[in-house]
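U., I forgot to send this yesterday:
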Amino acid sequence: QVQLVESGGGLVQAGGSLRLSCAASGRTFSSYALGWFRQVPGKEREFVAVISEWGGSTRYADSVKGRFTISRDNAKNMVYLQLTSLKPEDTAVYHCAAAPYMSRSQTDFGSWGQGTQVTVSS
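Result:
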């Protein structure tokens, strides 16, 4: 398994940008697909983006496509989520997670970070 710790959340005005980071421990980082999910209290956690083991393939939720960009640096054991053109409805706790293959389903992700809060004010 891999341990994950997110950072970079905060309060931002609508239209603004943030960069979320997720630091991973473990020597097998490059064998995992990495994903970002988000959750609002009282709602189910939802898929945001996923990147393949070596970064050659990415997938996005329709709600963030064209505004968010997922990337990874296997040399640094890091995965990032660049958030731009933020909207109030993007407000959530954002979690990074690791899976043995690319997936949009949270049930395929066995390792999770604690999350970082993103709040977008109107």
